Amino acid sequence: MKRLKVMTIFGTRPEAIKMAPLVKQLQETEEIESILCVTAQHREMLDMVLDLFQLKPNYDLNIMQHGQTISDITVKVLKGLESILQEVKPDIVLVHGDTTTTFIGALAAFYQQIAVGHVEAGLRSGNIYSPYPEEMNRKLTGTLTSLHFAPTEGNYKNLIQEGIKEKNIFITGNTVIDALLQVVKKDYIFDNHLLNQIDYINKKVIVMTCHRRENWGEPMENIFQAIVEVVKKHRNAEVVFPVHLNPKIRSLAEKVMGGVEAIHLIEPLDYEPFANLLNRAHLILTDSGGIQEEAPALGKPILVLRTETERPEAVEAGTVKVVGVEKDIIIKEVDKLLLNSEHYLQMANAVNPYGDGMASKRIVTALKYYFGYIHTKPNNFKIESIEN
Question: Which ranges carry the UDP-N-acetylglucosamine 2-epimerase domain (predicted)?
Answer without folding.
Answer: 24-368
